[in-house]
Amino acid sequence: MKLGFEETQTAYTSGSQNARVWTETWVKTWAYCPHCGHPQISQFPNNKPLADFYCSSCQEEFELKSQKTRFGSTVADGAYKTKCERLAESNNPNLLLMNYDRKSLEVINLFIVPKHFFVREIIEARKPLSPTARRAGWIGSNILLGRIPESGKIHIVQNRSIRPKDLVLEEWQKTLFLRQESLETKGWLLDVMNCVESIGRPEFSLDEVYAFDRHLSKLYPGNQNVRPKIRQQLQYLRDRGLLEFVGRGNYRLIK
């Protein structure tokens, strides 16, 4: 894998269109499938809704978003209705996020959000387009990247450094159990994982997670048993090998 783009001749005069060609060509040439390790992923024909690439070996699908700056807490995406409909489907795409250097024409960061981290709560509807717009009334979506735990952001390239492939595949497999869960169950698991990560230490207490009960109550206003729900999620994460119970109400994150 090399980080530089091949600045091939394009038919576009727009810088953003040229950048799209360069980034897509880079992914097609150098990216591998993080699910099965296949050394290359293929590009779909243009205009396929939501997905840009697929793995010919395991059939995983991928959507690519690229920009010059680092991604913030939200990522603009396609049609809201289509995005929500795809959430529970097996071919819901994984999300590849790339930021690049426009001057040196090279990848700075590339990370993937596995599709099993996508739940309804992280998809936000944008305002409908105005009546005078070409697609009047169309409603796009935002992906709330800030609600995805760090374990759901698997770096392939980080700060211009290529991470070992076996480590990427290991991190992918570690959270694959989430695919077995319903969207509702995943929502709670991911939000509790976010709370645990925000504590900022590998060891933490149950009381420290309880401190997020008001935050979680706002996210799930219909649930009147937030603390039992927190305990349930911690036990589940322990059973799945992401946490270790070290006694007296204390837990440890397993790297």
TrEMBL record:
**Residue ranges of domain Dam-replacing protein HTH in the record:** 184-252
Report the superkingdom from the record. Bacteria
Task: Report the Gene3D superfamilies cross-referenced here.
Answer: Dam replacing family, catalytic PD-(D/E)XK domain, Winged helix-like DNA-binding domain superfamily/Winged helix DNA-binding domain
> What InterPro entries does its record include?
DRP, DRP_C, DRP_PD-(D/E)XK_dom, WH-like_DNA-bd_sf
What protein name is recorded for this chain?
A: DpnI domain-containing protein
What is the organism lineage in this UniProt record? Bacteria, Pseudomonadati, Pseudomonadota, Alphaproteobacteria, Hyphomicrobiales
